Amino acid sequence: MPRYNPATVEPKWQAFWAEHNTFAAPRVPAGRKIYVLDMFPYPSGDGLHVGHPEGYTATDIVCRYQRMRGTSVMHPMGWDAFGLPAEQHAKKTGTHPRTTTEKNIANFRRQLKMLGFSYDWDRELATTDVDYFRCTQFIFLKLFDTWFDAEQQKGRPISELPIPDDVSEEGEEAVRRYQDEHRLAYQIEAPVNWCPELGTVLANEEVQGGVSERGGYPVIRIPLRQWMLRITAYADRLEKDLESLNWSESIKALQRNWIGRSTGAEVDFFIGMTPGDDGKPDQRQYQGWLRDRELGGYPRKPDLDVLRIYTTRPDTLFGATYMVIAPEHPYVARLTQPGQADAVKAYCEEAARKSDLDRTDLAKEKTGVFTGSYAINPVNGKPIPIWVADYVLISYGTGAIMAVPAHDTRDYEFAAEFGIDIVAVVDPGEAEGVSRDDVLAGKQVFTELGVAVNSGEYDGLPTNEFKKKIAEDLAAKGLGRTAINYKLRDWLFSRQHFWGEPFPILHELDADGNLTGMVRAIPAEELPVDLPAEMKFDSTHASPEPPLEQAPADWLYVTIDGKKYKRESNSMPQWAGSCWYYLRFLDPKNSEALVDPEIEKAWMPVDLYVGGAEHAVLHLLYARFWHKVLYDWGYVSTAEPFQKLVNQGMILGEMEFTGYQDDNEQWVSAGDVKTNAAGQPISKTTNDLVTAVKVEAAAVEKQGEGFVLKDNAQIRVDSRAYKMSKSRGNVVNPDEVVREYGADSLRLYEMFMGPLEAVKPWSMEGVNGVRGFLDRVWRMIVDERSEEMTLNAAVQDAQLSDEQNRMLHKTIKAVTEDVDAMAFNTAIARMMEFTNFFLKEDVRPRSAMEKLVLMLSPYAPHVAEELWRLLGHDDTLAYEPWPEYDASALVESTVEIPVQVQGKLRGRIRVPVDADQAALEAAAKADPKVAEHLEGKKIVKTVVVPGRMVNFVVK
RNA sequence: GCGAGAGUGGCGGAAUUGGCAGACGCGCUGGACUUAGGAUCCAGUCCCGCAAGGGGUGCAGGUUCAAAUCCUGUCUCUCGCACCA
User: Fold this and answer.
1) Is the shortest CB-to-strand distance from A310 to strand B under 7 Å?
2) How many domains does chain A have?
3) Which of A845, A861, A889 is the last residue of a domain?
4) Same domain, A441 and A292
5) A618 CA to B81 C1', in Å?
6) Which CATH number covers residue A873?
7) What is the β-pairing status of strands A645-648 and A706-709?
8) Cβ < 7 Å from strand B, A residues 344-383
9) How confident is the model at residue A403 (pLDDT cuts 50, 70, 90)?
10) Cα separation of A756 and A914, whole Å?
11) A835 in the same domain as A790
12) How far apart are alpha carbons A454 and A316 in whole angstroms?
């Protein structure tokens, strides 16, 4: 009977591991430690996807390998369980989100256990656990209780915030408001991205090109009171500390790009308090202002009589021929002259109505309107017109720019559109790709570095020197200062969901029951703030108002010391729970602290963090931000949470061939098909829609660069693998794969497909292939013809032959080096070679078989345990020492060396390993094939690399 | 447009201090065993060629005794960002 049958072997060992608590992690490590973390999944109703086990298998291999090397391993798993789908399900069916969530978690847990991962399940947690979000709320209180000291670059308790005298003179309420303005968690009334379809407000990051990232629904902007987290305060540290991390350069680049640090200068342009009838500031006032600035210096906050701008190119100040302020800029109304009022008002209203989608869509053509007012360019005293245009964003820099059309593409387009002067102030010289004459004539835009012209005393300065010089000069005159800006925005931290962590915040009510604008934090010892138990779920949610506004009054309203309060009804975003779960895993049941400091110190940081690249920016940036705040408070001992990060590549569906047919079901070659604006395939010649038709692999053949129909070689077909999706019907279900081939085969296949970080197409035949390998390993060791589990007769307590020994140690060396490099695909290939070799051996020494089983066990743990037992061991192999290789066993007495003539391979010679140059050369010349090619030629040069190759250069 | 990464057989991929291109697996071809085969085993499988030989790592150049690997240019694809002043 005993053919390899994963359906019996796998559940048996899963039960064994659970019963013996095989993978329990110690409270603190004994000796060397490794903390290996998977990005915990959102337990969706669809269950596990084959993408999940890819990263999970990789980390599981590392953990099992490290246990065998005597390392203390922390390897936990949990659930990122808050999220919109459960709430939408509740709206449809009335089922409480917690019920749905628990059901989904149970399914995920079953699936993960089915795959044999060596998690310490006693540490399991879900972000929806009340005890867990009690701690999440605690961290929020800390964020609320922190201000960022820019001097020290550190978060500090709000009680240490210095209060300016003029504020403290105004009284206690003013002080509280001042503090509230400086907290890391603060509230604003801001236009938010309301998505009616999803019934929620989205973060900027969740809106892609004006539509929701999930679902692609339209998003409109409406004002709402929101909680924000001041992540921008930590931008500098978040960027700088990337350097210390063992992350791929591409992920670091993504984060740097997202943070988007730029250095430049802020400059104040004088506009005056009351412009003249012509819209221009009074020259005498301007002169007075210049003198005041020279004496008083550059103020921290701009006065009302200036327009403050940010530029990365202060060297182009002389070329600024107009200015632009964003439609939302607070000065818009003030700067609008009566004659322009209607036009400006209309323009701003339209801009406000526009969704981000519209703004992006219309990006091709610049729009704007003149305010009628002018500002004075501080370098030459010239008045320049101020425009309102939506290509300037209120959320970046100061929301206002100086426009230099000659040297900025956007300004150039705008100036061309509206006929504004273009003055070149940077001479491109011999720079490539531009015509110097055209640039100097204002007919072509030039945005690179060059040499200053038309810039008064600065003429002749190279761009970089000019930048430095003018920044100093402006600072000396009190007109500007060097400044740093970030693309990163503060984090919109509230959501209009029921199914999220409630904020531990109360809003003060006045006698009429209206919000006073003052808030009060719930003390840490009174946490958690649980969600209301009784809750009705509406199927319609047509307003952006949070569902918790409909919560029972006894939850929503609180009276403390006779004062009435209303609970915050927003909830936290899903990101909140995933910001710190790696800490809670270390000490999941601690009721006193987030994590015991002794335990935290012993296990942190996470040594290996594996997950999808889709979290390269947001999750990782948010978690790093929280970690740094906790670090500033002394709750954690490391500046960064995740030392090494690896992103597994996406697994695509099976490779597909796609042909195209027109309305008459006639084939259209893929070369004649393009996509239209709506993304549909159309014919290049007729522009008619064509239909994509799936073509079987058997019906196509390779021709040249691509594939064509076998029946009609004129018709090219597309060949590619697509992202798995329900709509495409190419989703692979892990349950089915396990049923058909077993968990070990699934694990092995996912690792064998290719490098962990690469994007790879699925292939069911490939799974079958690795299953064949496991079958061969089984037959190599087990006697299949026997009814009992019996060793194959070839497995004997015998000495290894030299060749067997070499094979064994070669394999140990390669597999060990590969797992250290996380090159699992080649490690598996080496074990396949080992198996192919020993299957041909009549005697398979037991010790060699045991070592293979140990090496295979991280990849295919169930079958390995089963074989280990058959080989005569009573206990799990999880803590057996990892095989060591013997370098002396690798040495061969002779080696085959290629011989080239003119760089072309002409023969191979077998020589002693230590053959010297002369011996190699002689042996090479003696080879008949080589001799043939040398005959009648003169040897000009002989290259001999001992142990590697010989090359003759002849004439 | 900007940034990052990648182009190697029919397919997934291996080989990177420059040194035998195609490890390993799939698929395919032929054979053995068999009532049967989607089991197993054996042999073959980069392309052209009967062979000798020639060609070959997206394309075009270059460096070198020797290039998938280094340099220059170029094309294509994937991912991310996208009016960030």
Assistant:
1) yes
2) 4
3) A889
4) yes
5) 13
6) 1.10.730.10
7) unpaired
8) 359-360, 362-363, 366
9) very high
10) 39
11) yes
12) 10
Could you check: is the Cβ of residue A589 within 7 Å of any atom of nucleic acid strand B?
no
Q: Which residues contact A232 (CB under 8 A, 6 or more apart)?
A: A486, A488, A489, A490
Measure CA to C1' and name the residue nearest B66: A903
Give the per-residue pLDDT at A889.
87
How does pLDDT run across A185-204, given as a tens digit for each residue?
999 887 777 777 777 777 66
Whether A358 has a pLDDT exceeding 50, the answer reads yes
Q: What is the nearest nucleotide to A906, using C1' and CA? A: B20
Domain residues for A947?
892-954
DSSP-assigned letter for residue A495: B
Q: Which residues touch A703 (CB under 8 Å, ≥6 apart)?
A: A713, A716
| Nucleotides in B strand less than 7 A from protein CB | 3-5, 10-15, 19-21, 23-27, 39-42, 53-55, 65-67, 78-85
Residue nearest to nucleotide B25 (CA to C1'): A769
Which range is least confidently modeled, A19-23, A605-609, A949-953? A949-953
- Residues 804-823 (A) near nucleic chain B, CB < 7 A: 823
A825 touches strand B (CB under 7 A): yes
Single out the residue of A589, A706, A723, A750 nearest to residue A653, CA to CA.
Answer: A723
Q: Which of A139, A119, A135 is nearest to A127 (CA)?
A: A135
CA distance A394 to A408: 19
Residue A565 lies in a domain: no
Domain identity same for A788 and A908:
no
Q: Is residue A338 a part of any domain in this protein?
A: yes
From A485, A516, A531, give the residue that closes a domain: A485
pLDDT band at A1 (very low <50, low <70, confident <90, very high): very low
Q: Do residues A831 and A850 both lie within one domain?
A: yes
Residues A833, A870 within the same domain: yes
Q: Are residues A883 and A901 in the same domain?
A: no
Nearest residue to A612 via CA among A104, A53, A36? A53
| Confidence class for position A113, pLDDT limits 50, 70, 90 | very high
Is residue A896 domain-shared with residue A880, that is, in the same domain? no
Q: What's the rounded Cα separation, in Å, for the pair A873 and A867?
A: 9
Q: For chain A, what's the residue count?
A: 955
Indicate whether A368 and A345 sit together in one domain. yes
Whole-angstrom Cα distance, residue A692 to residue A676?
Answer: 14
- Of A795, A739, A798, A797, which is closest to residue A764 (Cα–Cα)? A739
Distance, CA of A387 to CA of A384 (rounded, Å)? 10
Average pLDDT over residues A254-264: 92
AA identity, residue A369: V
Rg (CA), chain A: 35
pLDDT at A212: 72
- CATH code at A944? 3.10.20.590
Q: Is A70 left (phi over 0), alpha (psi -120 to 50) or beta?
A: left
Residue A212 β-bridge partners:
A207
Closest C-alpha among A401, A422, A391 to residue A321? A422
What are A816-825's pLDDT values in tens digits?
Answer: 999 999 999 9
CA distance readout (Å), A49 to A53, A110, A947: 8, 13, 49
Cα distance between residue A444 and residue A406, in whole Å: 7
* A925-938 residues labelled b (16+ CB within 10 A) or e (exposed): bebeebeebbeeee
How many CA atoms does the CB half-sphere of A928 hold within 13 Å?
0
The answer to whether the beta carbon of residue A24 comes closer than 7 angstroms to any atom of strand B is no
Q: Can you state the angle between helices A51-68 and A743-752, rounded to 10 degrees?
A: 90
CB of A908 nearer than 7 A to strand B: yes
Give the closest nucleotide to A655 (alpha carbon vs C1').
B11
| Domain contains A256 | no
Residue A312 Cβ under 7 A from any strand B atom: yes
Confidence (pLDDT) at A868: 97
Q: Could you tell me if residue A525 is inside a domain?
A: no
pLDDT at A66 over 90: yes
